Amino acid sequence: MPEIPIPVTLRHRPTVGGLVVPWITMQMPDGRYRFGAIDAERLLAALTDRICQICGNPMDRPFVFAMRDVDLSRLISSEPAMHPECAKYSVAACPMLAGTMSRYRAQGSDSPASAGDPAGVRPGHAAHSWRLLWTSGYRRVWDPRTRTPAAQILLTHLHRVQRIKSPTTDQ
To answer: What is the pTM of this model?
Structure first.
């Protein structure tokens, strides 16, 4: 896989294997980062204080959300918004968003402070298709399905929806 250039706006973030570690990524007690596991405290802070989940800086409009197709009909995102430039990098760099992973990691997070898959149903399952949603606003809610903090996008705030490449399939 070719190296993905890191935007200037993300150069303050740590990297692992050439990839920027998103601000909301869980850091384990031994210092390792656990891609795919979300720090529950940072998740809540990002949703409440409008902080970009990737760079960790404050946000203003537009807000860009990566949303799984399965959540699109509800317009509820389990992940916080991103700056447009952070979203562009994430679509290129994140194997799940880029569609290069066909399945979620087989092992769930081993940290009780992790959020993102509270029911533990994703490990080993087929990857979902994702879309980017550009909005002028959102409200923080408690997702009735997962009972975790989430962002609800109102139709009046929704400006654009873009399909991201579908996940690869198992051969």
So the answer is: 0.82
Instruction: Assess contact for 41 and 114: CB atoms under 8 A.
Output: no
Reduced to 3 states (helix: H, G, I; strand: E, B; else coil), residue 101 is coil
Beta-strand pair 76-77/149-152 = antiparallel
Torsion of CA 151, 47, 66, 131, to 10 degrees: 20
CB half-sphere exposure, 28, CA atoms < 13 A:
10
| C-alpha pair distances (Å), 27 with each of 8, 21, 91, 110, 114 | 23, 10, 22, 11, 9
Element of type H or E holding 47 = helix 40-49
What's the pLDDT score for residue 108? 47
Alpha carbon separation from 48 to 60, 119, 135, 151, 162 (Å, rounded): 13, 23, 16, 9, 25
Q: Could you report how far apart the first and last alpha carbons of the chain are, in Å? A: 19
Element of type H or E holding 90: helix 84-93
d(CA 38, CA 22): 9
Which structure tokens are listed for 24? 């909301």
Query: In this model, does residue 36 exceed pLDDT 60?
Result: yes
Buried b or exposed e, range 110-123, using 16+ CB within 10 angstroms: eeeebbbbeeeebe
